[in-house]
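User: Here's a protein and a ligand (zinc ion). What would the complex look like?
Assistant: Let me lay out the input and then the predicted complex.
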Amino acid sequence: MQALRKTRPDHGLELIEVDAPPAPGPGEALIAVQAAGVCGTDLHIDAWTAGYHFMAPHLPVTIGHEFSGTVAALGPGVEGLAPGQLVTVRPSATCGTCAACRAGHHDACGTRRGIGVLRDGAFAPRCLVPARNCVPIPDGVPAEVAALAEPLTVSHEAVRVGGVQAGDRVLVLGPGNIGQGIALFARAAGARQVVVAGHGDAARLAVLRRMGFEDLVDFAETGGIAEGLAPYLADGRFDVVIEATGAAAVVAPALQALKAHGVLVITGIHAAPVPIDLVALVRNHQQLRGSYRAPEADWPGVVAFMRTHAAELRHMVTHRLPLARAAEAFALARGRQATKVVVQPAP
Ligand SMILES: [Zn+2]
Ligand SMILES: [Zn+2]
């Protein structure tokens, strides 16, 4: 089969012929990959940025960690899954043997191996995964929407960490797929107003408009962050600000846009340390919180949300390409026109 792989510790990826995975062993499931999203992580792995050099001893590896597919085969002893069933897959494979795993505290596993990062992933027609990582997808959710589950859990976790309450005014910085998901979950949590801002992001903001959001700001058009937020800050500062850009320039303005006792959530991966004015943070009783991978227990709820919100979520998938055009898919994902580019590996 064809697979998109990181073959050596250097810039680039290769679409090459590899052996199909073996039949699933005990506790394993073989997935026929229907849809696999291209994520910022994949772009970093392609570019071989410093934060991903930990992969070097594990190469070659097939990448792709945001995916859905049908169960092609099940190993001995697997219960709760059936051949042909559509599933999404939690990409974080826990070790099963450390003290935390043995105690059933899988979220605390310290020796996890990411599918599509440290073990073979989903930019291939078949992917072998631990069966316990498979989350069944209800009828009515298309495979390409099911492939959004992993980034949606990240968005869901950011809104939970922010403590968004009914009646809050929420500012989301960054209109990419994580920011779009944050906007959806903030609205579902009862936020009175959700403002989403980007920079040179007309296409992604247009997706949000199709999802029913109206308070959208493009700082490239307003002449700056302060100018873009001024009309909203005239009504008061925000209860919660959630950053999903990884851009250092937004952090100080984010704190300035936050009211006293407010919460700033950081989800972006920042390439360098960011200076912040801690005096203002202290005097305003503000809280700064980091948000990352969601706990396993959140997945079924996010999948249930996908069923009730499939129509809005469909707008997030802006491009679909076969695996043979993976290079094109990555180029699209690098540009600012796409929200989520999905590769469809299974024939
Ligand atoms: Zn991802
Ligand atoms: Zn473990």
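Summary: The first strand starts at residue 2 and ends at 6.
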